[in-house]
Amino acid sequence: MYDPKNLSKGVAFILMVAASIFLGTWPNIFKRNETHVRVELQYYVYAPMVCITAIVFTCIIGNVGSDKPDLFDDLNNLSTRGLRVFLALLAGATIATGNMLYVYGAHRVGISVGMFIQAAGAIVIGATLNYILEPTKSDPLLLFIAVGLSFLALCACTVANKIRSSQVAPANTVSYIINEDKETKKESSSVGVLFCVFSSICTAFFSPIFSMSVQGKDNENATIKVPEDRLSPYTAIFFWGIGFTTAGIIIPFCVLQSEKIRMPSANSNPLNHGKFYDYFLSGIAGVITGFANICIFTGGDSAGFAAALSISMSNPLIGCLWGIFYWHEFSNVPPSVWVMVSLMYLFYIASIIVVFFSIK
After folding, report:
1. Which neighbouring-strand residues pair with 359?
2. Which uninterrupted H or E stretch holds 294?
């Protein structure tokens, strides 16, 4: 197999930027489909496609090159690495849960705001956790500055959302309640922010969990040592995909079954039906998400997961462009909102630049 640790700093950075573009793009497919088919039903296609993408990638790249052990060698020697496998599965389940919470939140507050809340929170928590696990791969002072800038971007985003929600409802979102009054829309926006905050917590934890599945047990710089042989990055991605799909199917199933019990008429919801093209697009979103996380994992194994998570979480810069120019989420808002959006961009771009220079 080809060892990602041999990647140069520049290539690792390119992979992280590619991840941010992918992560900023896939939610638009769910937003497009929200008037056609339920999120839970989309996940039945989306989650397996994430897994298939991860498995195809690992089976091809994980067996290329002369480095040993390759993927299949690694899979044949898992009997003493149960905890490592569990961590990889847990990382997949955690990010699958975070993605679903984000989709629910973005439905209420819009992609532009929702993505910034999720990503900034993930950087603040995730970069700190990853640094604790691998303190030698990042400059602590620069990483702390980057986290502070991300937090300022999050504050600007929160203020922008508060001003906007007091003026108008997010554009191009589906309302399940006809003729909602202003207070109901405000409440929906607040719930959306909470969904995005919980999503950021899940997103923050998945990277450190994955990192522990691939760290060597003899790594003297690791704060938490797992007393088992490490998984290769490709083997960890393999099980990560399985964990993602398992959670991505079980959680939507439970949500739908719970709704049927509470509201027997829910089965007649028109959003319970969709066309083939809607589900096809959900599958494309799964492929994009799969490649995004593969870029994070391979780049992170080389440059450190603290830096990988921070740079890849620049996805709101992409998502906000979609929200502003395609979905028109900031139409008819007061100038103060645009001031906050500009500050949000300024702080976030600055944090990404600082993170790049923090990589050792």
Report:
1. 138
2. helix 276-303
Q: What is the pLDDT along the chain (360 residues), one digit of tens a residue?
A: 556 666 777 788 788 888 889 988 999 999 898 888 888 899 999 999 999 998 898 888 766 655 555 677 777 778 778 888 999 999 999 999 999 999 988 888 888 778 878 887 787 787 778 777 777 777 888 878 887 887 888 788 778 877 877 765 444 444 333 344 455 555 677 888 889 999 999 988 988 888 888 876 666 566 667 767 788 888 888 899 999 999 999 999 998 888 766 555 545 566 667 889 999 999 999 999 999 988 888 877 766 666 676 677 778 778 878 888 888 877 788 888 889 889 988 988 888 788 768 766
Burial environment of residue 141 by CB neighbours within 10 A (0 to 12, 13 to 18, 19 or more): exposed
> Could you report how far apart the first and last alpha carbons of the chain are, in Å?
25
CA–CA gap between residue 20 and residue 178 (Å, rounded): 36
Alpha helices, DSSP H, located in 110-181 = 111-133, 140-167
How many Cα atoms occupy the beta-carbon half-sphere of 48 within 13 Å? 10
Distance, in Å, from the CA atom of 122 to the CA atom of 199, rounded to the nearest integer, reads 8
CB 78 within 8 A of CB 161: no
- The residues facing 138 across adjacent strands are 359
How many CB atoms lie under 10 A from the CB of residue 246? 16
- Could you tell me the two tokens for 224? 């938490």
DSSP-derived 3-state class of residue 359: strand
Report the distance separating Cα 118 and Cα 229, nearest Å.
33
The single-letter code of the amino acid at 126 is G
CA contacts within 13 A on the Cβ side of 110: 27
Tell me how far apart the alpha carbons of residues 287 and 282 are, in angstroms, rounded to a whole number.
Answer: 9
